[in-house]
């Protein structure tokens, strides 16, 4: 059921996903073609905010910050996962794998490489600010417009 908390959570996490995506882009090699990188991450943020954060709103300030932590963790998990799958499909179309099992294993290798690549202090601080912002705004919306 649509609520103001779900809408606020989706909107806040999508904004955070946009800014984190902009922070990740300079970390990648110069020859990287980003294509739909930012729109895909924004859609992931919308989904995480709506599904994971929105339904857990309205339980207090501490729970709101924990809700924001959960949202940012899921945003990074799904973002890295989707981008790793995208890269695996790109490499699979160039016949880089001998079989489907090798391609699936490669998803986890690529995801681990991306996780190490984005594990920087500025991105961590951006996620921390996004955590508090998203959690508190979602809680505000749940209390203000039940």
Automatic annotation (TrEMBL):
The keyword Cytoplasm does not apply. InterPro entries: TrgA. Keywords: Membrane, Transmembrane, Transmembrane helix. The chain crosses the membrane at residues 7-28, 34-52, 64-85, 114-136. The keyword Disulfide bond does not apply. NCBIfam families: tellur_TrgA. This is TrgA family protein. It comes from Sulfitobacter geojensis.
């Amino acid at each position: 059921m649509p609520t103001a908390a779900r809408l606020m959570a989706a909107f806040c996490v999508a904004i955070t996903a946009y800014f984190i995506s902009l922070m990740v882009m300079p970390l990648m090699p110069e020859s990287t073609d980003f294509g739909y990188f930012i729109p895909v991450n924004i859609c992931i943020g919308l989904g995480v905010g709506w599904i994971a954060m929105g339904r857990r709103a309205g339980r207090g300030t501490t729970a709101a910050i924990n809700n924001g932590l959960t949202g940012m963790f899921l945003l990074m998990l799904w973002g890295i996962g989707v981008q790793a799958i995208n890269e695996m499909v790109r490499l699979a179309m160039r016949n880089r794998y001998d079989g489907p099992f090798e391609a699936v294993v490669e998803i986890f290798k690529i995801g681990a490489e991306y996780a190490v690549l984005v594990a920087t202090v500025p991105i961590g601080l951006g996620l921390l600010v996004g955590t508090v912002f998203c959690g508190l705004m979602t809680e505000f919306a749940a209390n203000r417009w039940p």
